[in-house]
Amino acid sequence: MPKRNPRAQPADGRRAWLVGATGGLGPALAHRLARDGYDLLLTARRRRRQCTALARELLAAHPQRSVEVLCGDIGDPKFAAEAAATAAQRGALDAVVLASGDLFLGRPSRTSAKALRAQLESNLLAPWTAALAALPALRRSRSGGRIVFFGMAGAGLPTAKRAVAAHAASKLALLSMARSLAVEVARDGVAVWTVSPGVVRTARSTPESVEPFLEHVPGGRALAPEEVADAVAWCLSPGGATGTGGELPVALGFGL
Ligand SMILES: NC(=O)c1ccc[n+]([C@@H]2O[C@H](COP(=O)([O-])OP(=O)(O)OC[C@H]3O[C@@H](n4cnc5c(N)ncnc54)[C@H](OP(=O)(O)O)[C@@H]3O)[C@@H](O)[C@H]2O)c1
């Protein structure tokens, strides 16, 4: 498993914990964070080998960076605490990017309580558990801690959502909690964002998961993962702190 890079610049580099490293958006986010000067802890739930391969790729492209891997379920408070401690350097952490969350598709009348609970576990409680675990270290960041949650374009409006009702409900609840947290931790220098992608074509996408939705994208095309990574990079930039509590749609008008 890749460990700290012996050639890495020690101690003073900024540190980020990226959850969802093996997902459709994960590699683009990881490359962008490394390019922007972050030493990284990469987390996925179970694809350890894929995560390790990404870590090697990052170290080859950014030899001055340090990249570690720790896989597990961020909804488990014990794992979340272990990962947050690993991500931090001398107790301080600069950013947590929470690009995880399963998608359940099904009409409301076909959404069992079990399915709804699973969506809430995956999209609300798991990232929330990770954010709380990281908060003490984020408060110690010298550059100002950042939390980036992932929503879904359009989920911020409590309108009817048809096949993604349960998913949208979990993202709406997450957005509400993110805003409330942003208000509480603003004086600690910690900024909280929710980045809400629309239709993104990733290595994990299928034609069925992209093409039918394109007619609802005013911008007329699917986004690339790198475009979502650009938005996250802006949230993490010094200027991004001023928008704490905000939702940033990255969607070319989808969901408005
Ligand atoms: N891609 C899109 O078009 C799109 C659109 C709107 C919103 N979003 C949001 O953007 C975020 C990232 O999307 P994505 O497409 O990259 O997702 P994805 O392809 O489904 O990948 C999810 C990633 O998160 C990890 N993960 C999931 N649950 C976890 C948990 N409890 N603990 C630790 N790791 C966990 C997965 O690890 P394993 O692979 O090991 O399970 C995987 O690395 C999600 O919140 C999603 O809802 C994406």
Describe the structure.
- The chain is α/β, with parallel strands linked by helices and 256 residues long.
- The chain has a single domain, classed as NAD(P)-binding Rossmann-like Domain (Rossmann fold), CATH 3.40.50.
- Helix content is 40%, strand content 14%.
- The protein has seven helices and seven strands; from the N terminus they run E-H-E-H-E-H-E-H-E-H-E-H-H-E.
- The chain has helices at 26-35, 48-61, 77-87, 113-139, 165-185, 207-214, 225-236; strands at residues 14-19, 38-43, 67-69, 95-98, 146-150, 191-197, 247-250.
- The longest helix has 27 residues, at 113-139.
- The termini are far apart.
- NADP nicotinamide-adenine-dinucleotide phosphate is lined by residues 19-26, 43-47, 73-75, 99-101, 122, 126, 150, 152, 197, 200, 202, 204.
- The site of NADP nicotinamide-adenine-dinucleotide phosphate (NAP) has 27 residues, from helix 4.
For this entry, give a set of tags.
globular; alpha/beta; Rossmann fold; binds NADP nicotinamide-adenine-dinucleotide phosphate
The CATH homologous superfamily is named NAD(P)-binding Rossmann-like Domain
The CATH C-level class name: Alpha Beta
State the shape.
globular
Strand count, sense and closure of the main sheet?
7 strands, parallel
- H/I helix tally: 7
Identify the strand order in the major beta sheet: 3-2-1-4-5-6-7
Output the radius of gyration: 17 Å
* CATH fold name: Rossmann fold
Instruction: List the secondary-structure elements in sequence, H or E.
Output: EHEHEHEHEHEHHE
Number of DSSP-assigned strands:
7
CATH architecture: 3-Layer(aba) Sandwich
Q: What is the terminal-to-terminal distance?
A: 43 Å
